[in-house]
From TrEMBL:
The lineage of its organism: Bacteria, Pseudomonadati, Pseudomonadota, Alphaproteobacteria, Rhodobacterales. InterPro entries: TPR-like_helical_dom_sf, TPR_rpt. It holds the Pfam family TPR_19. It comes from the Bacteria. Gene3D superfamilies: Tetratricopeptide repeat domain. This is Flp pilus assembly protein TadD.
């Protein structure tokens, strides 16, 4: 409603300009005023397309608008962002590559290009792009990507350093802490992983992935007790199931059976996966 009111005021202004034509207002000024209204309208629509609109609809919008305004870098950025949202990373990488050839491209555009390349599983190309970014460009996303690259190369010290920097550059580090914890888990640093998953949950208590990873880190230390974290009844059943599978994998069969029974009893509905696992254990004797 606010946008409509603003546009309405502008239209009234244009009508006023037209009415004043005999008092020295030129046709060029009227045309510019109309163009200003279109810019306001387009800016509002672009914001909607980048946030709440269906990603595929946003892609179509930006492609159509770029065809009419091929030199506008903001529209090319919008297309690239929309392709990422639409889970089309290869096309998104191509779009970001185009952005980097345009006047006005900056280091943040290169960070976004590297992000799209990682999503497209082009890790080496992403690393090469990050290497082109000057060290003075210190942003959360840049260091989060640097950490992921270091992880993929098994450069653990660099990964830890980059993760630590990234966490310090955001007020919402739960996802990065979870990734860092998973990195520690994959290296066998179960104590470090447990600490990081727990820290992630202090920022986002509802993050089930971190809860599940926390259970995995504790189970790797043969601690199968449920952590003291916020969880629903269904989540508790699923976490018990995760602990049960970990116990069975490590040869703690009796503990695994008991945890499966707890998972089945805890789940408010039929827990088919846990029941099948329990039956499979029984058949093995």
């Amino acid at each position: 409603m606010r946008n409509a009111g603003l546009i309405g005021l502008c239209v009234v202004g244009i009508m006023g300009l037209t009415a004043c034509g005999e008092r020295g207002i030129t046709d060029e000024e009227v045309e510019q005023a109309i163009k200003d209204v279109n810019v306001i309208d387009e800016t509002n629509l672009t914001d909607v397309m980048l946030t709440v609109a269906d990603p595929n609809e946003a892609v179509v919008y930006f492609e159509r608008t770029i065809a009419q305004n091929p030199g506008r870098i903001d529209l090319h950025r919008g297309l690239a962002q929309s392709l990422v949202r639409a889970k089309k990373p290869t096309a998104a990488a191509t779009a970001w590559e185009k952005v980097l050839t345009m006047p006005g491209a900056n280091s943040e555009d290169r960070v976004e290009y590297a992000d799209a390349l990682i999503r497209a599983n082009e890790w080496k190309k992403a690393e090469a792009e990050l290497d082109k970014i000057p060290p003075t460009h210190e942003t959360y996303k840049r260091y989060r990507l640097e950490a992921m690259i270091a992880d993929s190369n098994k450069e653990w010290e660099k990964a830890d350093s980059f993760y630590e920097i990234a966490v310090g550059l955001t007020t919402t580090p739960s996802g990065t802490l979870n990734n860092w914890g998973y990195s520690k888990l994959s290296r066998g640093d179960y104590v470090g992983a447990e600490r990081l998953f727990g820290e992630a949950l202090t920022y986002d208590a509802g993050m089930f992935t971190a809860k599940n990873n926390l259970v995995l880190a504790r189970a790797a230390q043969r601690n199968y007790d449920m952590p003291v974290v916020q969880m629903s009844q269904i989540e508790r059943a699923q976490l018990l199931y995760t602990a049960a599978l970990s116990a069975i994998k490590q040869g703690d069969l009796n503990t695994g059976k008991a945890l499966l029974d707890d998972a089945i009893d805890t789940h408010p509905q039929h827990f088919d996966a846990a029941i099948r696992s329990r039956e499979a254990l029984e058949k093995q004797g």
